[in-house]
Amino acid sequence: MPKKNQTLGEFIIENQSDFAYSSGELSRLINSIRLAAKVVNHEVNKAGLVDIIGAYGETNVQGEDQQKLDVMANETFIQTLTNREIVCGIASEESDDFITIPGCNNDHRNKYVVLIDPLDGSSNIDVNVSVGTIFSIYRRVTPLGTPVTKEDFLQAGNNQVAAGYIIYGTSTMLVYTTGRGVNGFTLNPALGSWYLSHPEMKFPETGRIYSINEGNYVHFPQGVKDYIKYCQEEKEDRPYTSRYIGSMVSDIHRNMIKGGIFIYPKSSTATNGKLRLLYECNPMAFIVEQAGGKATDGFRRIMDIQPTELHQRIPFFCGSTKMVEKAEEFMAKNER
Ligand code: P6P
């Protein structure tokens, strides 16, 4: 039973026994993520003070301008995981292909792979709006002691062992699940310790917040347009409130506390949506479902989808179950 104000270290040790045959590898993996998160948090929090803000001058595989903090965050998480030889492979939004951890051929028998968006919402860095890190952890499916293959990363979200995010906001939080509910830990920067501030987080079954970039309205499918109009109708439980800050981790974190729906749909300009299935939608879907919410592409459950490409994009509807189901009704009506 999680105890409020328990430290993350105590929580990990207390719950390690939940994993049959646990070698402690997953605990060490979560511990290395929390260390990397503290390093990134330190840089994000002082970004305004040193010349680290601003574009790095290169673009990533997504064709997006890489902010310097993106690169720093990517290198920090990859280095921390590699140095500890806890995983056998890493895939990152900022890296074109997956990374095989040296020594993964017989030197060690590490069984986990990590997929990560090291700094989601980084376009907000220059304007001091919250950003986040998203991570997803799987057991490898190829034989231990051999180099990882793409197969180890292209697994359906149902296979996730753990998933989480760090939100670098007014306070810095680590929110994660290992399939037994969702718990949120807040960093005390003075002590460098994380404390259980949000035990057993639950997504409200419904809410009054809808989060979508309405600037793209004219490009949306008719079902999405109809749902937005439904949200804006003057009815007993509406209009809803529109809240969208362009940082998915922050938008979904807020909605998980207050109730709401986040939608990044496909459009005529983004035929598969913008968000990536493997290291954005699957981990957020795992967390949302573990908290009692729902996550689909408007039709299919996100974690049932079989990935085909490392950086593939997918439309994303997630949040309070009743709100996602209402949005799906409009999608279904217009699909026929
Ligand atoms: P748009 C940030 O770049 C991100 O990947 C998500 O965090 C965010 O929800 C979305 O893109 C914002 O995209 O097209 O609305 O600016």
From TrEMBL:
<dbReference type="GO" id="GO:0006002">
    <property type="term" value="P:fructose 6-phosphate metabolic process"/>
</dbReference>
<dbReference type="GO" id="GO:0006094">
    <property type="term" value="P:gluconeogenesis"/>
</dbReference>
<dbReference type="GO" id="GO:0030388">
    <property type="term" value="P:fructose 1,6-bisphosphate metabolic process"/>
</dbReference>
<keyword id="KW-0479">Metal-binding</keyword>
<feature type="binding site">
    <location>
        <position position="274"/>
    </location>
    <ligand>
        <name>substrate</name>
    </ligand>
</feature>
<dbReference type="GO" id="GO:0005829">
    <property type="term" value="C:cytosol"/>
</dbReference>
<feature type="binding site">
    <location>
        <position position="93"/>
    </location>
    <ligand>
        <name>Mg(2+) 1</name>
    </ligand>
</feature>
<feature type="binding site">
    <location>
        <position position="120"/>
    </location>
    <ligand>
        <name>Mg(2+) 2</name>
    </ligand>
</feature>
<comment type="similarity">
    <text>Belongs to the FBPase class 1 family.</text>
</comment>
<dbReference type="InterPro" id="IPR020548">
    <property type="entry name" value="Fructose_bisphosphatase_AS"/>
</dbReference>
<comment type="subunit">
    <text>Homotetramer.</text>
</comment>
<dbReference type="InterPro" id="IPR000146">
    <property type="entry name" value="FBPase_class-1"/>
</dbReference>
<feature type="binding site">
    <location>
        <position position="213"/>
    </location>
    <ligand>
        <name>substrate</name>
    </ligand>
</feature>
<keyword id="KW-0460">Magnesium</keyword>
<dbReference type="GO" id="GO:0006000">
    <property type="term" value="P:fructose metabolic process"/>
</dbReference>
<feature type="binding site">
    <location>
        <begin position="120"/>
        <end position="123"/>
    </location>
    <ligand>
        <name>substrate</name>
    </ligand>
</feature>
<dbReference type="InterPro" id="IPR028343">
    <property type="entry name" value="FBPtase"/>
</dbReference>
<dbReference type="GO" id="GO:0005986">
    <property type="term" value="P:sucrose biosynthetic process"/>
</dbReference>
<feature type="domain" description="Fructose-1-6-bisphosphatase class 1 C-terminal">
    <location>
        <begin position="204"/>
        <end position="331"/>
    </location>
</feature>
<feature type="binding site">
    <location>
        <position position="244"/>
    </location>
    <ligand>
        <name>substrate</name>
    </ligand>
</feature>
<protein>
    <recommendedName>
        <fullName>Fructose-1,6-bisphosphatase class 1</fullName>
        <ecNumber>3.1.3.11</ecNumber>
    </recommendedName>
</protein>
<dbReference type="Pfam" id="PF00316">
    <property type="entry name" value="FBPase"/>
</dbReference>
<keyword id="KW-0963">Cytoplasm</keyword>
<dbReference type="GO" id="GO:0000287">
    <property type="term" value="F:magnesium ion binding"/>
</dbReference>
<keyword id="KW-0119">Carbohydrate metabolism</keyword>
<dbReference type="InterPro" id="IPR033391">
    <property type="entry name" value="FBPase_N"/>
</dbReference>
<dbReference type="GO" id="GO:0042132">
    <property type="term" value="F:fructose 1,6-bisphosphate 1-phosphatase activity"/>
</dbReference>
<dbReference type="InterPro" id="IPR044015">
    <property type="entry name" value="FBPase_C_dom"/>
</dbReference>
<dbReference type="Pfam" id="PF18913">
    <property type="entry name" value="FBPase_C"/>
</dbReference>
<feature type="binding site">
    <location>
        <position position="117"/>
    </location>
    <ligand>
        <name>Mg(2+) 1</name>
    </ligand>
</feature>
<feature type="binding site">
    <location>
        <position position="119"/>
    </location>
    <ligand>
        <name>Mg(2+) 1</name>
    </ligand>
</feature>
<feature type="binding site">
    <location>
        <position position="117"/>
    </location>
    <ligand>
        <name>Mg(2+) 2</name>
    </ligand>
</feature>
<keyword id="KW-0378">Hydrolase</keyword>
<feature type="binding site">
    <location>
        <position position="280"/>
    </location>
    <ligand>
        <name>Mg(2+) 2</name>
    </ligand>
</feature>
<comment type="pathway">
    <text>Carbohydrate biosynthesis; Calvin cycle.</text>
</comment>
<feature type="domain" description="Fructose-1-6-bisphosphatase class I N-terminal">
    <location>
        <begin position="7"/>
        <end position="199"/>
    </location>
</feature>
